[in-house]
Amino acid sequence: CEDSTCFLTMKETDREAVATAVQRVAGMLQRPDQLDKVEQYRRREARKKASVEARLKAAIQSQLDGVRTGLSQLHNALNDVKDIQQSLADVSKDWRQSINTIESLKDVKDAVVQHSQLAAAVENLKNIFSVPEIVRETQDLIEQGALLQAHRKLMDLECSRDGLMYEQYRMDSGNTRDMTLIHGYFGSTQGLSDELAKQLWMVLQRSLVTVRRDPTLLVSVVRIIEREEKIDRRILDRKKQTGFVPPGRPKNWKEKMFTILERTVTTRIEGTQADTRESDKMWLVRHLEIIRKYVLDDLIVAKNLMVQCFPPHYEIFKNLLNMYHQALSTRMQELASEDLEANEIVSLLTWVLNTYTSTEMMRNMELAPEVDVGTLEPLLSPHVVSELLDTYMSTLTSNIIAWLRKALETDKKDWVKETEPEADQDGYYQTTLPAIVFQMFEQNLQVAAQISEDLKTKVLVLCLQQMNSFLSRYKDEAQLYKEEHLRNRQHPHCYVQYMIAIINNCQTFKESIVSLKRKYLKNEVEEGVSLSQPSMDGILDAIAKEGCSGLLEEVFLDLEQHLNELMTKKWLLGSNAVDIICVTVEDYFNDFAKIKKPYKKRMTAEAHRRVVVEYLRAVMQKRISFRSPEERKEGAEKMVREAEQLRFLFRKLASGFGEDVDGYCDTIVAVAEVIKLTDPSLLYLEVSTLVSKYPDIRDDHIGALLAVRGDASRDMKQTIMETLEQGPAQASPSYVPLFKDIVVPSLNVAKLLK
Length: 754
Known about the structure:
75% helix, Tetracycline Repressor, domain 2, transport, SNARE binding, cell projection, mainly alpha, elongated, Exocyst complex component 3
């Protein structure tokens, strides 16, 4: 079946070969001219066939040689296997014959083990007998501070003990009695080890001092620890093979060394607090400054000296830096958890957020480049910092409210003094209130700026908010001060001077607020915060306006008697009321010269307006009714003279302000022209002119004015009144009303027309 399959395969292969050949020949003989090259094609194909056959023969020959060599090697291997099998049979036969002989050598084996133990005992015999002496010598060396020599003897003792215990463990690991006997005989060894360790830890606790005074001692301690570390590693390696671990191992003195250093650092940080709040209000500032100095000095010593005493792989400076940082973080957390006052919170946050990372500490040039501040974690978490800031802002708010209240109470006490207030360098009266308030604000803002820009902005916003509330209280107190004085004008003695100081304080407050914002608001974001605060200019202007009004009230109370004389028979017969009014006003304004210019300017204009209004009120109150043209002329001319007298006075008072002060007095002149008019037929025209110039004049004012003239008939009055009512004049935007506040006595128009 296999032969037939092979035959068919070969036949198929021949067909494929013939087909391929036909295809190739057809490809070569596609044109008639190619027939001439048939012989050439035949020779080329013959050469190719010969080459292929040669390669095929070479390949078959190579395979045949390989098969021949393989058969030879298999034959040799078969012979070797037979020889090994025969040898194993011989060994098995010999082993069965020697079993009895091996059993008879058991005693020899036991003797060999015993000999090994005895050899170890003999080897350590000298040390065993000298253990008490070595213990005493080691103890003396420890007491003398010869730590290296003491450790060398301790190592000999431990080596003898460990060797004996290891041999016992190998011989009989379950024999605890002998183990206990050996351990007991070397019992002092563990005590010596502990005593030596105490000495090492004492040196390490004082390492920062020792490295400056006796660095050799510190190096000796480090060498001892390194020796113990090597022994620990060797014993742990042997434990993996034998399972035996000597007592007291591993000592892990390197790990304990870092634990001691960490505990020493913590104790050093905690021990820097020398005072309490009860004994010294600046206790925290002193505590933090001592910490700063100690930590900086210690790290500089560690960087420059201690690194020379420790192997590089100990990374002693890096580890000490982490220890100090962790100890500081723990201490700062403890301080933050205490019930700190506002100034103490500021001191703590300033130290944590600024001082610690400044050139005064961790950025100090002597610590570079080993200390990278950017890699240090924050001493206080953001949450704790936020809580401290919230507490600070809450406490600061209460403090500012209390400070402002106290400052205002102190200022109020000054208001009732018998002596005049102080004056500034320009001679303007003032009190100390603005200086006290803004000095307090400045101090708190400077403190906040030390912590962060964000806190500074928050404190400024707080100050402005509290200032707004404070000014409202200030306004109320100034109003009460004025009302109390009006109830008893003899008290306080220096009311005018202190009211002037209050008015000037308003200007000082405005200037100080602007200065504060300009100084502590640097960018557009903060400016936006500032603009969102309530404007205090309005409150300050209201306080100043009330103050000026109070002072003018004082003036007009003194003028009341003389103002009542105007437009009376006494006045017409030769009263000097206006002379007294001018002298009184000028005298008061000599005191008012101590008012700062913005408010003095407004006050002068208001005084001018009120004097004119009072003069016009005197006209409208119908205190006199002229009976003849001569009286009307005399009265009108007197009014004109007095108007000029008042004009001269207020020009003098307003000098330097650049204001037009003639308009008010012109009103008196215009009214006088109506009274002076001799031709009643022109009265309507004159009154119309008056109304057009002063649109706020009412019909009752016209009626009163006509009544003062005393010559207008009822029909004329009626005609004038009806005509004027038909077309009221429109006031210009710049017009200052004078007549709207003048009330005509309750004599109705109908009666005036009679």
